[in-house]
């Protein structure tokens, strides 16, 4: 399938296939170029990922390429003073001088103690480069990044079916519950194509029920919007689980018995009952005795029940959760999430009826279970201090109807083309893969990393903890002080909680090097600025979290790079070379690119490879030698739909966890490790095998006089606050009330005598923000909403209007507001409100 | 004879403004000029409230008041019904803007073309695109006539992530437009203005 | 769902009434000057009052046209505005103004001679007729220009040209009256009676217009609200009604019956013309485009 447009037409213009880089996802695009000028970007209709569609950001990419805010030459700071609003007094320098400065300063640090480098890397599309700090010798991750969203999400997906993310089956689902997520409407996975699939699904009659404190687009377009209090959605879902288990008694017994470890017996200490050989035991209900899980016919395996074994009381994992949920009545749960009990009951009933438990479907000659009802969720619903429980509850609610990775149901989305990470673990259960971005860190005391990654064996990189550890290092036994920082495609000052503390830490840095395309709040602190190329000027093979497709899409330069910029890969490689670890860098790339498994593609440690060489090898290593970069330049992509085999039942004959014993065991091990190390007061209470309701710190803050909640959100016009600096986009978003200021409910506004435009102040235990009130109907009366894209403090284009309310100042970056098992951060805050004028 | 137009399915539309930006980059319009827009509104009171989205563009009215009002003949109507402005004839009197009930006429003020969106003059892209405009004249959505003439669909249509915008010919007996309107019931904006729009909407 | 009132949208992405922002004070001035200039000329022509004819002529040919030209985005192409008299009232207006410029000029020639050439009588009388008709046309065609837009309900009424015509007449009468009083002091009673009648008639017309509009479309109703209670109430009630009509009437009664000072004459003229101009401006500015909404949004009250 040749790319028809790659040929020049009569006017000398031609369409060049490439990949969008305006957000992390990477839709297929084609770019019209004439006389070296990019004139139009359209979706590549040959790419099944986005089907020729582009979201508004993709449509605005040309304005980023030619944005006058871009930095087009290496810069050196001449003002030794640093701080917010302080002009760095940049002067242009040569690449050679820039590299030399960076290499000298970083070399000094590396020689002294490489851990003294803090790294803020955020380029998801060039995720293969994320190992650079590790080769340098630093484990430190100084950014909230994926933890603000996926801190608890990715580990649970990885543990359930080896996926990285998840989505419901657009094609076949009939009843879609959406919690705290913009999938198919405004954000998350590959918006352009997902919006099409979601619209088609709704048109064929799929029902959508959306839980969100705010009338998001997903809520506005849903058949039913259920406003919840932030951080309490789990209560709603646990209440529904109660209804299924205790009231309706409808759930997919067969799935739970045959496809999960729900029937495995659990002792009163919470560990699985194992025989002498270490085999997990189940109950034979025919013979009334415990047997190893693999020595019994499925029909006689008990799913529910409490039994006596060796004089001890044992219960199936299923029974344990059922017992836990006995008091999680819709009444009690409804009070927590502010939803009437009847609504919880009704949705639970509608859901389980729509799930058609027991039905099957034929796809391409194969029979699969058919469960056309599923619950989808993302950042808003689970980026909370009890995020692990949130994720477990949502996944397990899906499991109750047996919809995991079956047609119509809740489908795992692999990290990339490699598909699900499936391998056998213990007891016939799939091996949990909570870490997919880097190997699980081993426990260490004193810790090496400033964000304590060694203390989160099943968690993510808890970047927000940097503020707590670095400002109070003794408490954590941290025995060195970082001195330098590498910022690359990330804005830690803007994405981390507690902006003031982040500044304090940045102030301590003796040297900061930034690789970016434009000035940001963070790069303003840099000593050297190394300008990267935009996605329209660089090369890359991209595949990231595509919900229904697989395969790579090529990013290639469509115009001559503007100014004197270099590709980030080249920059990092040059730095590695000058710092003397190019060989290790190549070795690392060999591992992450998968060349070690195909030795003919191994990079020679003694050679330097250009970006094109690297991606050419990468392409050939995956698609064969006739599919190198040249092939991709012609064809644009090798993206295709995932086959049913690749999509459904990826776990095959393996069971998936229902009773998450490994989480409990990890916690137990952590307890021992910490005791041995003598670390006092480290919370471990979230290492639980099953989810239940418990309050988080945020909820308890209500008792401290913080009456309201504050939340943040994304919408289709912007990628974080980054694209706010693009006038094409901000010109439109500033006209939407949703980005108009601090959102609040009209009834609340009435009580507080606040009107749209009035200046108000929100104060949380961590900090305060001020801004103009935007009074709306579509938000929970107890909630204030602040769009992700409303304020930036470093903006060079006067057309971009500032609203002055940076949400993250309200968040706290401490363990109290962190999920103790995953490191996931709490992304809502309790606030007080004051009217200022 | 063709009568080109559009049907916009509000049930599909998610108010994403991809159409707004696709139009912007297709036509390279100067600052704050958007032929395609999404009118956004909240209806109802909490919790029975909805955000509603109404994507708009020129209706290419059959009885186009803008053309009626144009004293110079700069506003003209193509055979296929597309309402055009000939910028070389336009005198910038803005009578058409006052006459269009739908706010779909856009005047290019003096000085507007001197700077693009940058802080340092025109970008290479704008340098190309701005040659299509002239200060002191009126501009508007052309239903992407240049694309239509090349056999393509309008830019806002092809990009629309939900396929909410459907382009076609009202006179085509096999066409989708009339069929959709017949099936789902369609309406146009401000019928009281008797403009006979060729853009129709399907209910949410 | 309760009803929500509709506000004025701040931009074209917002829902609500949209303000008319295209025609500004230059167009207002042109309309105003055309009205009073045409009327002054016409009245003076009928009453053979040369200074009035000259002034009226200049107000139209210089004043009105300059305002128009200055407003145009492409003034150098102004002639194109005459291209479509078949459908555009502006084009018709251009023709009228052009004819007026020529015929009026002929009427103004001293003894009907141009550079020593005696213009034949037929031409002279033809010029008179043409000047009269075109001046009359110039007095009110703006009303049709505005009225022809279906977009702005407040303008889209058959009454508008009449209102404009009557205001032009009033303005022309005021100017003629003032000129006469200042210049020759010969004051035809019929003129000042006409002035009084016109003031009363215009008041009634205005009241009738608003009454009609408040039962017209929601957008028209909203404009009435803007005029009577909204941001334009000060200009409308203060300048148009209080100063332009009531004060003018009162002062001219005083002027005729108590004191007859020249300053008062000027004051009256100022009052009336202020009201006249304010009316044109307020008509332009308070014009609203209707909200664009699907029928399903109609749970809302269009206030
Ligand atoms: N357009 C766009 N797309 C993006 C991105 C972007 O910046 N812009 N970023 C990408 C990235 S990195 C991520 S992580 C994903 C995020 O994708 P999403 O998770 O879809 O995005 P968010 O808007 O962060 O959160 C979703 C919703 O959660 C709601 N919310 C907040 N708190 C709560 C709560 O406590 N409970 C419930 N039920 N809802 C809550 C918000 O109002 C919001 O509507 O999107 C990716 N895609
Ligand atoms: N208030 C609030 N804060 C949030 C969120 C929220 O919803 N609300 N979302 C959170 C989430 S989920 C995430 S993942 C994080 C993301 O946080 P960040 O990773 O900081 O995301 P961006 O703002 O996209 O920062 C990336 C920076 O990369 C730069 N950049 C853009 N393109 C390029 C390029 O081609 N090359 C290089 N070198 N640099 C480039 C831009 O200048 C931008 O500032 O934010 C989190 N922070
Ligand atoms: S969803 Fe992301 S990758 Fe796709 S067009 Fe939008 S910005 Fe580009
Ligand atoms: S692009 Fe389509 S879905 Fe998005 S706002 Fe426009 S019409 Fe609606
Ligand atoms: S929508 Fe407006 S600009 Fe378009 S044809 Fe109708 S009246 Fe003219
Ligand atoms: S502005 Fe131009 S297009 Fe509009 S009416 Fe005047 S001459 Fe015609
Ligand atoms: S048809 Fe073309 S010009 Fe008109 S709104 Fe759509 S993209 Fe813009
Ligand atoms: Mo994220």
How would you characterize the overall build of this protein?
The complex is a heterotrimer of chains A (837), B (204) and C (303). With 837 residues, chain A is of the alpha/beta class. Chain A contains 27 helices and 32 strands. In chain A, α8 (217-221) links the parallel β9 and β10. With 204 residues, chain B is an alpha+beta fold. In chain B, the strands form four sheets. Chain B has a four-stranded mixed beta sheet. Chain B has a two-stranded antiparallel ribbon with strand order 2-3. Chain B has a two-stranded antiparallel sheet with strand order 4-5. The longest helix of chain B is centred in the first third of the chain and has 10 residues, at 18-27. Chain C has helices spanning 25-46, 50-71, 89-108, 121-147, 159-183, 189-213, 218-228, 233-257, 262-285, and strands spanning 18-19, 113-114, 117-118, 288-289. A two-stranded antiparallel ribbon of chain C has the order 1-4. A two-stranded antiparallel sheet of chain C has the order 2-3. The structure holds ligand MGD (2 copies), iron/sulfur cluster (5 copies) and molybdenum atom (MO). The site of one ligand MGD has 33 residues of chain A, from α14 and β27.
Measure the end-to-end span of chain A: 63 Å
Structural class of chain A: alpha/beta
Low-confidence stretches of chain A: 1-7
Number of discrete helical segments of chain C:
9
Query: What is the SS-derived class of chain C?
Result: mainly alpha
**Taking Cα atoms only, what radius of gyration of chain C do you get, to the nearest Å?**
21 Å
Biggest β-sheet of chain C, characterized?
Answer: 2 strands, antiparallel
Overall 3D shape of chain A: globular
DSSP strand (E) fraction of chain C? under 5%
Number of β-strand runs of chain A: 32
- Main interface pair? A-B, 65 and 46 residues
């Amino acid at each position: 399938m040749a790319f028809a447009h790659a040929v020049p037409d009569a006017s000398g213009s031609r369409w060049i296939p490439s990949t969008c880089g305006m957000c992390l996802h990477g839709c297929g695009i084609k770019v019209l170029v004439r006389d070296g000028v990019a004139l139009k970007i359209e979706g590549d209709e040959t790419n099944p990922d986005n089907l020729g569609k582009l979201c508004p950001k993709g449509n605005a990419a040309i304005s980023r390429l030619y944005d006058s805010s871009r930095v087009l030459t290496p810069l050196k700071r001449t003002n030794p003073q640093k701080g917010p609003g302080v002009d760095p007094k940049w002067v242009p320098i040569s690449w050679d001088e820039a590299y030399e400065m960076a290499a000298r300063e970083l070399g000094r640090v590396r020689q002294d103690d490489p851990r003294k480098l803090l790294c803020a890397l955020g380029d998801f599309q060039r995720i293969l480069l994320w190992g650079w700090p590790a080769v340098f010798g630093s484990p430190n991750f100084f950014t909230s990044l994926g933890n603000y969203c996926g801190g608890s999400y990715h580990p649970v997906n990885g543990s359930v079916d080896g996926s990285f993310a998840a989505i419901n089956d657009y094609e076949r689902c009939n009843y879609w519950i959406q919690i705290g997520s913009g999938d198919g409407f405004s954000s998350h996975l590959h918006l352009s194509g997902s919006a099409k699939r979601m619209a088609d699904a709704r048109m064929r009659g799929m029902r959508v029920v959306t839980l969100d404190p705010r009338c998001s687009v997903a809520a506005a377009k849903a058949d039913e919007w259920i406003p919840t209090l932030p951080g309490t959605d789990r209560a709603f879902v646990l209440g529904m689980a109660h209804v299924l288990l205790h009231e309706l008694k409808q759930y997919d017994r067969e799935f739970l018995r045959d496809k999960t470890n729900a029937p495995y017996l659990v002792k009163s200490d919470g560990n699985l009952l194992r025989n002498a050989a270490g085999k997990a035991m189940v109950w034979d209900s025919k013979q009334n005795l415990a047997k190893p899980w693999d020595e019994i016919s499925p029909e006689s395996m008990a799913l529910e029940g409490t039994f006596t074994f060796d004089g001890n009381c044992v219960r199936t994992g299923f029974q344990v959760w059922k017992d836990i949920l006995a008091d999680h009545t819709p009444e009690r749960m409804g009070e927590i999430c502010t939803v009437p009990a009847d609504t919880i009951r009704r949705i639970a009933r509608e859901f389980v009826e729509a799930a058609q438990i027991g039905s099957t479907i034929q796809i391409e000659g194969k029979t699969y279970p058919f469960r056309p009802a599923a619950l989808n969720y993302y950042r808003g619903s689970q980026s909370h201090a009890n995020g692990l429980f949130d994720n477990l509850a949502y996944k397990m609610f899906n499991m109750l109807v047996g919809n995991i990775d079956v047609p119509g149901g809740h489908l795992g989305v692999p990290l990339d083309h490699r598909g699900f990470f499936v391998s056998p673990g213990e007891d016939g259960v799939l091996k949990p893969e909570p870490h997919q971005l880097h190997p699980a860190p081993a426990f260490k005391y004193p810790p090496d990393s400033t964000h304590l990654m060694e203390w989160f064996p099943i968690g993510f990189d808890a970047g927000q903890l940097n503020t707590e550890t670095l400002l109070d290092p003794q408490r954590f036994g941290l025995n060195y002080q970082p001195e330098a920082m590498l910022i690359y495609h990330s804005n830690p000052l803007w994405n981390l909680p507690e902006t003031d503390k982040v500044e304090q830490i940045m102030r301590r840095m003796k040297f900061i090097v930034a690789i970016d395309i434009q000035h940001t709040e963070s790069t303003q602190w840099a000593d050297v600025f190394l300008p990267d190329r935009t996605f329209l000027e660089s090369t890359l093979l991209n595949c990231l979290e595509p919900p229904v497709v697989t395969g790579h899409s090529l990013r290639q330069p469509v115009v001559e790079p503007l100014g004197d910029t270099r590709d980030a890969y080249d920059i990092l490689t040059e730095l590695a070379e000058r710092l003397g670890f190019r060989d290790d860098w190549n070795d690392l790339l060999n591992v992450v690119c998968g060349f070690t498994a195909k030795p003919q593609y191994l990079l020679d440690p003694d050679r330097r490879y250009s970006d094109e060489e690297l991606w050419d090898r990468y392409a050939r290593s995956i698609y064969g030698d006739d599919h190198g970069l040249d092939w991709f330049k012609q064809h644009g992509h090798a993206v295709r739909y995932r086959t049913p085999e690749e999509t459904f039942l990826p776990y095959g004959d393996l069971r998936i966890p229902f009773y998450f014993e490994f989480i409990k065991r990890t916690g137990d091990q952590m307890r021992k490790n910490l005791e041995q190390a003598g670390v006092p007061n480290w919370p471990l209470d979230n290492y639980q095998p099953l989810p239940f309701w418990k309050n988080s710190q945020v909820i308890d803050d209500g008792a401290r006089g913080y009456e309201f909640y504050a939340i943040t959100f994304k919408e289709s016009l912007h990628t974080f606050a980054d694209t706010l600096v693009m006038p094409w986009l901000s010109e439109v978003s500033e006209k939407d009330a949703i980005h108009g200021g601090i959102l609040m409910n009209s009834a609340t506004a009435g009580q507080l005598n606040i009107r749209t435009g009035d200046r108000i102040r929100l104060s949380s235990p961590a900090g305060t923000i001020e801004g103009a009130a935007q009074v709306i109907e579509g938000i929970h009366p107890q909630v204030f909403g602040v769009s992700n894209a409303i304020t930036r403090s470093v903006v060079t284009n006067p057309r971009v209007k500032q609203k002055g309310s940076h949400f993250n100042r309200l968040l706290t970056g401490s363990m109290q507001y962190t999920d103790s098992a995953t490191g996931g951060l709490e992304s809502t805050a309790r606030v007080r409100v004051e009217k200022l004028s | 004879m063709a009568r080109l137009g559009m049907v916009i399915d509000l049930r599909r539309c998610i108010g994403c403004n991809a159409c707004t930006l696709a139009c912007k980059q297709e036509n390279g319009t100067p600052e704050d000029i958007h032929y395609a827009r999404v009118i956004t509104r909240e209806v109802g009171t909490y919790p029975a409230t909805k955000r509603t989205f109404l994507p708009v563009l020129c209706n290419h009215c059959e009885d186009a008041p803008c053309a009626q009002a144009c004293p110079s003949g700069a506003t003209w109507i193509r055979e296929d019904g597309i309402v055009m402005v000939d910028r070389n004839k336009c005198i910038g009197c803005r009578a058409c803007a006052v006459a269009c009930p739908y706010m779909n006429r856009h005047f290019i003020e003096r000085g507007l073309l001197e700077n693009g969106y940058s802080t340092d003059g025109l970008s290479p892209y704008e340098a190309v695109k701005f040659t299509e405009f002239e200060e002191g004249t009126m501009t508007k959505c052309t239903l992407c006539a240049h694309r239509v003439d090349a056999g393509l669909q309008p830019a806002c249509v092809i990009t629309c992530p939900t396929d909410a915008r459907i382009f076609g010919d009202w006179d085509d007996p096999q066409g989708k437009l009339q069929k959709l309107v017949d099936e789902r019931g369609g309406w146009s904006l401000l019928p009281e203005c008797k403009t006979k729009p060729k853009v129709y909407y399907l209910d949410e | 769902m309760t009803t929500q009132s509709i506000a004025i949208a701040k931009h074209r992405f917002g829902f609500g009434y949209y303000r008319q922002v295209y025609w500004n004070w230059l167009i207002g001035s042109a309309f105003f000057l055309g009205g009073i200039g045409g009327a002054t000329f016409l009245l003076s022509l009928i009453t053979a009052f040369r200074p009035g004819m000259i002034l009226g002529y200049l107000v139209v040919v210089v004043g009105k046209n300059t305002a128009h030209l200055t407003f145009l985005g492409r003034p150098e192409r102004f002639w194109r505005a005459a291209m479509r008299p078949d459908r555009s009232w502006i084009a018709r207006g251009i023709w009228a103004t052009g004819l007026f410029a020529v015929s009026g000029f002929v009427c103004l020639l001293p003894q009907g001679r141009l550079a020593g050439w005696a213009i034949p009588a037929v031409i002279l009388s033809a010029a008179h007729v043409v000047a009269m008709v075109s001046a009359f046309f110039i007095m009110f065609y703006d009303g049709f220009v505005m009225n022809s837009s279906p977009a702005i309900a407040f303008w889209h009424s058959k009454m508008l040209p009449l209102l404009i015509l009557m205001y032009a007449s009033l303005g022309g009468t005021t100017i003629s009256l003032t000129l006469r009083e200042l210049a020759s002091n010969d004051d035809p009673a019929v003129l000042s009676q006409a002035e009084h009648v016109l003031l009363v008639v215009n008041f009634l017309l205005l009241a009738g217009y608003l009454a009609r509009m408040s039962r017209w479309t929601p957008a028209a109703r909203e404009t009435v609200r803007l005029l009577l209670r909204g941001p334009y109430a000060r200009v409308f009630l203060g300048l148009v009604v209080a100063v332009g009509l009531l004060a003018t009437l009162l002062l001219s009664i005083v002027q005729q019956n108590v004191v007859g000072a020249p300053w008062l004459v000027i004051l009256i003229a100022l009052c009336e013309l202020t009201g006249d101009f304010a009316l044109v401006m307020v008509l332009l500015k308070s014009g609203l485009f209707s909200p664009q909404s699907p029928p399903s949004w109609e749970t809302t009250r269009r206030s």
